[in-house]
Amino acid sequence: TNQMMSFRKWQGREDPNLIKPPDGGKKIGDESVSPTLLVVGDSYATMWGSGLDRLLRAVKKSGLIIATEGCSVVENVGFKKADECREIVRAQIKFIETSSVDTIILGGYWAKLFENVNNQLPPEPMGEQNILRHSMSRTLEIFKNSGKKIFIILPIVHAKGDPVSQALNSRARGGRAIYASLADYEQVYLTQISTQLDQLKTTYKFEVLAPMKFLCTKNACLEAVDGKALYDDRYHLSDFGSEYLADTFLPVLDHKNRH
Fold it and tell me: For residues 65 and 19, is the Cβ–Cβ distance under 8 A?
């Protein structure tokens, strides 16, 4: 991968006016060909850039990341102020609607939708278990008749150890894989998120990408191997981690090869 790309450090477009075709984002893959997919969301979408870049270069395809840190691609939900995220998300959605790209990958900190989101949701009563389904359906409804293929990336667990320490631990042990335990509460919320998305799949015909099956065993998750950390911080993958888990996106390539 071209390390000058610095995918993990790219924060996205803060000005909604800059989020528009044909560029409006960060290019990934083979830049000599037109983009065939868009990666949309927040920093939990951006962190996959390096792995996707490697996969796309290998098959001579390209894409664009139009994610912006702190703004999930669902209306009114994010770490930034509601108005700020709203305009960014609307610009992202407009980009998708007007772009000729036919494959969309949505990534975000979906676990945040099970937490208090600072009164950024609509005022009607809504249990926590319904927030993700409600918020995501509002976005998916826009794309329902667009003819575009939608993929949604499931979340990964957060790192338990300091990434630098875990990398040094692996290096000291001859590149040995370093794992951390998978907590019960993590298994619970990951199952909840999967369940919520499964309830939407019949209506909106998207596919789910599951990185956890490449990251974790039944009770533990990889944090470092070959003397390198899979995480950049406690929350996001490093470029190495993104590349290590790049097979998460093989269903996307399989879809594009069939269509």
Answer: no
